[in-house]
Model the fold of this input.
Amino acid sequence: MYYVYFIQSINHSKRHYVGLTTDLKRRMTDHNSGLSIHTNKFRPWKIISYIAFVDRSKAEKFEIYLKTASGKAFARKRF
Done:
């Protein structure tokens, strides 16, 4: 399975991050231990939502969409 996930910083609630992984538990450990350069300044993180996909291509397209202006607006409204 491919997971598109949406996380929020616990200490900086306006900070969010969208990512894609096949191992959500390990990826959250990476984010919270500072291994990701994109998220290490705002840790710790919590999962807000995730969506599982069987098809990698669809997961990648959804992740890319969530990183666009309209995708960010969608995420703010829905998550």
Summary: The mean pLDDT is 96.
